[in-house]
């Protein structure tokens, strides 16, 4: 039967080529298998052959990944100036389909105004779907997709990744994707130069570049000495680590801290005060704080954005919900911020209470903060949606 | 004939031959199937509801996860639906790249599906390994173009995410040299294999009328002798520019579906060769530069369908003028092709159930959504 640009063909079903002896079909098949077996001794054959192997002996051999390959997002910084490319424009946070990117904007401590730099940046790698939208939308080419695929870990918390672990130098990205970086390099660096001018003090510098930060501080101090001005407020010293995974020592320390906390909780008696708050709690608290902050921001934006667009006035229920969300978010942020700090003054108290406080306070606060953050976010979204309708 | 007591048994949900978490509630009389009820929903993950919470673009990577063998075809259907809704033009070159990717997807799907079918018949891994070997080459090409092997997320509204890399076409030409001999070898290995004939000839017959009544599509429908192919019935994209044939079966059994798939691989190769001829002359870039990705389509609804390797894949979208779809519905071919399973299996032996299921070629990610 003829159809447009082609025909309908019936598959040749009964038409056997030659019916020779019973079992001929099986023998023909065996011949094919034999050929494949012979071919298996030839390695690295081209695409045009159907026999031979192109397997590789991973992990001794590594696959040559194409430039476009994408696995997980990373953040870039410029080694020459020490500045991060990210300006916290929230584009990636908005587009992320599973909503795993969270960030807060850096603020100038002197004026309290927003600075084109990122203060905190979190990606929940465990829920990331590697779609690459964040890298596509980023107007500053600050977020890119990494080629590292060996991310397996026994530590689930470790898959919530913060800025320190996300930061990579530009040279790293240039190595894995040379042409893709060349295409955008000039524009990205030009934008970065413009942003550096608007970043006071050492805000926006990669925390692992301690020397760079120190050099910048000296520069600023020299400038301040030359011109009569208030010295820049000292920013907290950043840890000079870029460890992607916890080192065995850190892991051991963490385990020890958890064990100590548990022991203290159970016995409720004297113990050497477990000095550092467990990193897991701290991490969760930081994430909660960032989320709460963002929720507050969203809640704040929602009524403002809707007001001019909507002819009808916002219903009181919406307003209430938004306000409630904002308050909750604020509280959550405050609580979460206090949580790590709470351990510090407690250290002055008798050891038993200190240990108890560290053990008891952190999980409860963390839980509350997280819950509040989630609630705030949901309420804000609801409010925004209702406004949108 | 001796009457024996009927027995109800479960095949699945965790069973190596059910192609995912899928349960078949089988009533047997001795070895003979008297009734079969497909039970699914174990992999339900709220796809359509999630899609209504997301913006249009955010749904693109989610469609990859429907039929995870053929993410490109899913992308194509969804991108077409949104483009139709928002009135976005697609440049010619982008259309060619899209069709190229979808036809490669068809080849890799059939290479894999036939491997799994033979696997279900008991020829452990042999054909599957050969099929996967060819599939691997195509996945390498996908990786170099889109960045991922399975979850390609390559299509955008108005085109594709990025142009083909420079080494793509040479490698594709190498691949095309190998393809015909791969298909021929596959036929030599299996076509006259006595065991395959015993296991597939006259097994799982789906008569033409029944297939139409169940609105089955894809190779299963064509195996039953209905020459229906969305690429011919309603040529979308640039499919009206290619010569290709539609293979159909005569009986509608497992063997016909097997042969139809083998022939479809040949036809896909024909299409790709024509694409390679026409691609250099195609106008436009890989994406329409005016197309915005954060679309806000006007109020309305649309249905766009493509011939995915498994059958007619359609997306029904309703827009209320906002940035999110008001209603999002997937017409999944795997799901609809699975519904006549009970009728196809009745009267055959328990061992045939596995083969019949394999011949439908389902992916549970698409069935349950």
Give an overview of the whole structure.
The complex is a heterodimer of chains A (389) and B (369). Chain A has 389 residues and is mainly alpha-helical. Helices cover 50% and strands 10% of the residues of chain A. In chain A, the strands form 3 sheets. Chain A has a 3-stranded mixed beta sheet. A 3-stranded antiparallel beta sheet of chain A has the order 4-5-7. In chain A, helix 5 packs antiparallel against helix 6, helix 8 crosses helix 11 and helix 9 runs antiparallel to helix 10. The longest helix of chain A is centred in the C-terminal third of the chain and has 38 residues. About 16% of the residues of chain A have low confidence. By secondary structure, chain B is of the alpha+beta class. In chain B, the strands form 3 sheets. Chain B has a 3-stranded antiparallel beta sheet with strand order 1-2-3. In chain B, strands 7-8-9 form a 3-stranded antiparallel beta sheet. Classes of the chains: A mainly alpha (389), B alpha+beta (369). The interface between A and B is large, with 47 and 65 residues.
Key features?
heterodimer; A: 389 residues; mainly alpha; Alpha-Beta Plaits; three-stranded mixed β-sheet; three-stranded antiparallel β-sheet; 8 strands; 50% helix; elongated; B: 369 residues; alpha+beta; 14% strand
